[in-house]
Amino acid sequence: MLATNNKIVIFDTTMRDGELTPGVKMNLQEKIGIAQLLEQMGVDAIEVGYPGRYEKDFEEIFEISKVIKTSTICGLASSDREEIITVAQALAPAAKARIHTYTNVNLSNQSRQSEAEVLAVIKDSISLARNYCDDVEWSAFDATRSELDFLCKSIEVAINSGATTISIPDSLGLMLPEQFAQFLENIFNKVIHINDAIVSVHCHDDLGMAVENSLTALTCGVRQIECAINGLGARKGNADLEKIVQGVLNDGEFQIEIDTSLISIASELVAQITGIEKEK
């Protein structure tokens, strides 16, 4: 699913990252209801879960894959071979499937793994995912705290290995909009084949900047935004889907195919399921 011109891809992670919100758990029927509403809204990609880490997510991805036809169904995996195979199996019934795999690119946090070893892991994991699925997203986990030259090498390897979407997450929500824009511009300038993939951002709200950072990223060439209904997610949450959609529409330069009349219904449904009201 390559973005064309100014089409913005909306990637919803309410059911995957949203379940990392303290106290939040969703069952299969609740997730099916959310997924069907997201599909009606016109959300491009729906990330349902992480079956290599959470056993219940396998059935949820498998069953939702049977009922959703127009949105892409996505599951998360690390670079681990078994996790990637598990996601592929869970996505087997999907009309449109995406394997989303990630690798930690902040080597200061790694236990003596060399650059060459990490690059080999990226290549092998994406190549494996492409054996099962044409649509593969790769996330550079902890990108904003990694060394820029190595990050750019990692992205180049990911694209050359077949990743169709490259996600640059602010995993700990550490950056301010001006910093984030400069960071992204450096990546776009340094990675030779950056235009061969859709570039995505996944911003956390630890400093209250997830929405602003995500919208700022569009001016740098980013064409997918990862977000969640009511801003659910780990710690302070993710970029809020409603605010992202409104921001894109207000900008006027980009195309977005979301039925905004259904957003408040989705917000109320998720609030009812989770017991967490949307912040005004």
Automatic annotation (TrEMBL):
For this UniProt record, the keywords arranged alphabetically read as follows:
Amino-acid biosynthesis, Branched-chain amino acid biosynthesis, Leucine biosynthesis, Manganese, Transferase
Superkingdom classification of source: Bacteria
Per the record, the GO terms for biological process are: L-leucine biosynthetic process
InterPro entries linked: 2-IPM_HCS-like, Aldolase_TIM, PYR_CT
**Gene Ontology MF, one:** 2-isopropylmalate synthase activity
Which SUPFAM superfamilies does the UniProt record give? Aldolase
GO cellular component entries: cytosol
Q: Domain Pyruvate carboxyltransferase: where?
A: 8-264
Annotated family = Belongs to the alpha-IPM synthase/homocitrate synthase family. LeuA type 1 subfamily.
Descriptive protein name: 2-isopropylmalate synthase
Source organism: Aerosakkonema funiforme FACHB-1375
